[in-house]
Amino acid sequence: QPTSLKKIYWLEWLIVIASAPDIDHIFQSLRPTVNYQTIRITHSFALSLLLPLGTILVLALLGCKGHSLITRTQQVILAGLSHLAFDLLTGVNSLPLLWPLSTATFKLSFGLLPSAGSFNLSNYYFYRNSLIEMGVLVPLVFIAFLMNYDKTINSYSKLRIGGLLLISLCFMIWAFSLNR
């Protein structure tokens, strides 16, 4: 039981880390204006990796080492960078990825995910965009699961992975066709 509880707490912590860049919605001071442009400094590599690096330090101080530390380091770094990747894949917002070294912002000219819009339960676009995001991401999660746990790569496995990729691709095309 304690091991299961630790895994749950670890997953919850990874979710907190992945969500952390959006703290600038609560604290407007994390959105300074530079050259008449508001920049979201929490959406930079430096600040997105602050919590992950702190977590790695705490894990090391608590005695985590070897394969366990390597695995957790990879997980926490990916969680920290996932928010930036998903925000870039919407193709809507410019991100100051290199802040504090530079105030230049970066944005993709296309989107493979819809933008979140406003969280409003009576908003049609909230549901449509959630469906598209799930259509893109859930098949990819299943593919990762299959590749990790199903070590036998046979023609049936390849067919399942191909089908899941096709589903994800269809939703990406739908997202790509949305107005930005």
**Helical stretch tally:** 6
Strand count, sense and closure of the main sheet?
2 strands, antiparallel
Q: Low-confidence spans: pLDDT under 50, at least 5 residues?
A: none
Cα end-to-end separation = 47 Å
Quick check: average pLDDT? 91
Strand percentage lies at under 5%
Rg of Cα set = 19 Å
Number of strands: 2
Q: In what order do the strands lie side by side in the largest sheet? A: 1-2
Shape: globular
Helices and strands: which structural class?
A: mainly alpha
Residue share in helix: 55-70%
- What is the helix/strand order? HEEHHHHH
| Oligomeric state of the chains present here | single chain
- Structurally, the number of domains stands at 2
Overview of this structure, please?
It is a single chain. By secondary structure, this protein is mainly alpha-helical. The chain has 2 domains: about 1-90, no CATH class; about 125-175. About 60% of the residues lie in helices and about 0% in strands. The chain has 6 helices and 2 strands, in the order H-E-E-H-H-H-H-H. The chain has helices spanning about 1-20, 45-50, 50-60, 65-90, 125-150, 155-175, and strands spanning about 35, 35-40. A two-stranded antiparallel ribbon has the order 1-2. Helix 1 (about 1-20) packs parallel to helix 4 and helix 5 (about 125-150) runs antiparallel to helix 6 (about 155-175). The protein is globular, with a radius of gyration of 19 Å. The model has no long low-confidence stretch (mean pLDDT about 90).
